[in-house]
Amino acid sequence: MTGPSRASPGVRSARLDQLSATELHGLLRLRIDVFVVEQHCPYPELDGRDTDPDTLHLWTADDSGSPTAYLRVLAEADGSVRIGRVCTRADRRGGGLAAQLMGHVLQQNEEHRVVLDAQSHLRGWYERFGFTASGPEFIEDGIPHTPMARGQSPSR
Hints:
Distance between the termini: 32 Å
Structural class: alpha+beta
């Protein structure tokens, strides 16, 4: 495949080597705008997982091509699928864009256990998708998080 694909209507999907420099810049800018700037949380946003060959980036974009919502999908060593960095641009929140991305990922991974670390204030939002708490709340970068999972535990 060359370049990003449309995973479902309105959803774009690509691995790192399929992203243009402009697309990558837009996705990273959105993540930093939400997680670092808005949440006043300086942390190592570039954690090395974006470069894993199995990492999939999913996003929606406005008419100019600027990202409006984003998440990434990671392959975990135990066979589960991890969703992370779920975010929506401030001016597009409430329109269901992140839910559209989540729905796509879950539909594509019905046979897999899907895990994530939810910011605890968003726990109810993730429960709408069938996630349940899978461990105790913890603090990461000063923000309470709850580990959550959906689906069967992977066989080891």
